[in-house]
Amino acid sequence: MRPYAIEVKDVSFSYDKAPVLKDVSFSLEQGDFLAIIGPNGGGKTTLLKLLLGILKPNKGVIKILGRSPHNARHRVGYIPQTTDFNMTFPVSALEIALMGRLSRLNLGRWYSREDRSKAKELLRKVGMWDYRHTPIGKLSGGQRQRVFIARALATDPEILCLDEPTASVDPEFESDLYAFLKELNKKVTIVVITHDVGVISSHIKSVACVNRSLVFHGEGHISPEMLNMAYQCPIDLIAHGIPHRVLPTHKEK
Amino acid sequence: MWEAMQFEFMRNALIGGILVSISCGIIGTLVVVNRIAFISGGIAHAAYGGIGLAFYFGLPPSLGAALFSVVVSMIMGAVSLRSKHRADTIIGVLWAVGMGLGIILIDLTPGYNVDLMSYLFGSILTVPKIDIWFMIPLDIFIVLITLVFYKEFLAMSYDEDFAFVVGVPVKTLYFLLLCLTALSIVMIIRVVGLILVIALLTIPPYIAERYTTSLGKMMVLSSFLGTLFTVVGLWISYNYDLTSGATIIMVAGLGFFLSQAVDLLMRRAHLSQPRM
Q1: Do A73 and B165 touch (CB under 8 A)?
Q2: ipTM of the complex as predicted
Q3: Taking CB atoms and an 8 Å cut-off, how many pairs form between chains A and B?
Q4: Using one digit for the tens of pLDDT, what is the confidence trace for B170-200?
Q5: Residue A199 falls inside a structural domain
Q6: Which of A42, A143, A150, A236 is most buried (most C-beta within 10 Å)?
Q7: Alpha helix (H) ranges present in chain A?
Q8: Is residue A242, in this structure, part of any structural domain at all?
Q9: What is the pLDDT of residues B208-219, one digit of tens each?
Q10: Is residue A77 helix, strand or coil?
């Protein structure tokens, strides 16, 4: 049997005293497309960082592709939340894409020809090859996000984790991104933290509502009950100008 | 300045200043982009404890300062990773305790009156040849380490989490960087003194960052700017009989404000251009 992409058992985590995540358990099949939703400060990013091995749980076990997160590091791609960080950093789009080719194995060696052609291929794929020499701070939010996607894919990941990839980007990029992820999902397991419950609902296969605890739903639609649980307040699911239905039809009372 | 070059102490000062500027440009760039200027300040001041220990036990002060500041930098690194929320306070405590220890130990050292001022504000004009022989291998070591681990340092500095996820040993690199910083600081103390270390470490990279598009270029330009400030400062301090370390820092500070002003003017000019 194939190991689960992600297996989380009774995981709790706290930075200080108050638990950020408590008794979280779920498992995700390979090839799944998981949306993590929940209020800000509810522990979504913390959960992602635990899955990536950046943080270690206080309690419980996490397995990524049947191994510890630490040993599965090079098999997971990561697109961090990028609200304007390091805008003045002198680094080009190409150098950032190449970072995806780093690993423990090529420590202290220069990038190989293969690494460079991989970075080139991926920058072409996301439409950023023409901007390869542009400093990252000079790119728009959407362009920057494309570079980060190229960087994450350069690791040849089996699981791709995205932390609010559409925060501070243009709406056009948003629909492009989800179409791109849907295509990618044919080969790669995808985990995405998002507030765009509207656009995403036609692509996802399962949903996790995170607010200190986690409720996992194996079906790919987001119900009002789930949102109420996750955000603890009723949320308007009607998204304007989005050409597909967000909620399954339900009868008038 | 040229007639001054016939004096050996001036030649040593010039060579020392250039060697320090090179390591300052490379390490300073990494200090600025990794935001460890505060730790660097802590290491610089705590290094005085090492100088005190060296005098007390009759060792060469540079050696004492080097060993002690490497140890202190490792402790500060561990603290900054362990207790992130109070790291600055603990570093501040080590900063002060290191200095206090140094002063007490020198008080206790019999019959020897160390010129405290020369460590606080540097004494580039009294750099002995032996210190230059210590600076050359250190510069070579810093350049080599940076060349070998350039792409890892770049990834760690830009996005530590991502670097960790792809398998870069970020913690090891962080401690390596702190160790190199500590050794550079001991060199810089010779030139501008421990109080002014931070200025020489951060001003050139800060200016260079705006005019460069890669970390490597930022290092090269910082080294060049550092050399310029040191040489000009040295020349002024020689001609007008001023404290060399303080003069070098004043020149660097002038460079800093000039670059700010140029930046401001350029932005104004850019804004006032008619929109297309």
Answers
A1: yes
A2: 0.86
A3: 83
A4: 999 999 999 999 999 999 998 889 888 999 9
A5: yes
A6: A150
A7: 44-52, 93-99, 113-125, 141-153, 171-184, 197-200, 224-231
A8: no
A9: 998 999 999 999
A10: strand
- Chain B residue with minimal CA distance to A55? B161
Q: Does A71 touch chain B (CB under 8 A)?
A: no
- In chain B, residues with a C-beta closer than 8 Å to the C-beta of A104 are 167-169
pLDDT, residue A253, reads 39
Residues B158, A99: C-beta atoms closer than 8 Å: yes
The residue whose two tokens read 């020392």 is: B16
Nearest to A91 among B148, B158, B167 (CB): B158
Residue among B33, B148, B218 whose CB faces A108 most closely? B148
- Contacting A with CB below 8 Å, chain B residues are 33, 148-149, 151-152, 154-155, 157-159, 161-169, 209-210, 212-215, 217-218
pTM here?
A: 0.87
Residue A240 CB neighbours (<10 A): 5
**Which residues form the domain of A188?**
6-88+159-231
Residue A96 domain flag: no
A102 with B152: Cβ contact below 8 A: yes
Q: Mind telling me how many Å the CA of A119 is from chain B's nearest CA?
A: 14
**A61 falls within a domain:** yes
According to CATH, the topology of domain B3-272 is ABC transporter involved in vitamin B12 uptake, BtuC (1.10.3470)
Continuous segment of H or E residues that includes residue A163: strand A159-163
Assess whether pLDDT exceeds 70 at residue B98: yes
**The domain spanning residue A45 has which CATH number?**
3.40.50.300
Q: Are A5 and A159 in contact (CB under 8 A)?
A: yes
| Domain segments of chain B as ranges | 3-272
Q: What confidence category does residue B113 fall into, taking pLDDT thresholds of 50, 70 and 90? A: low
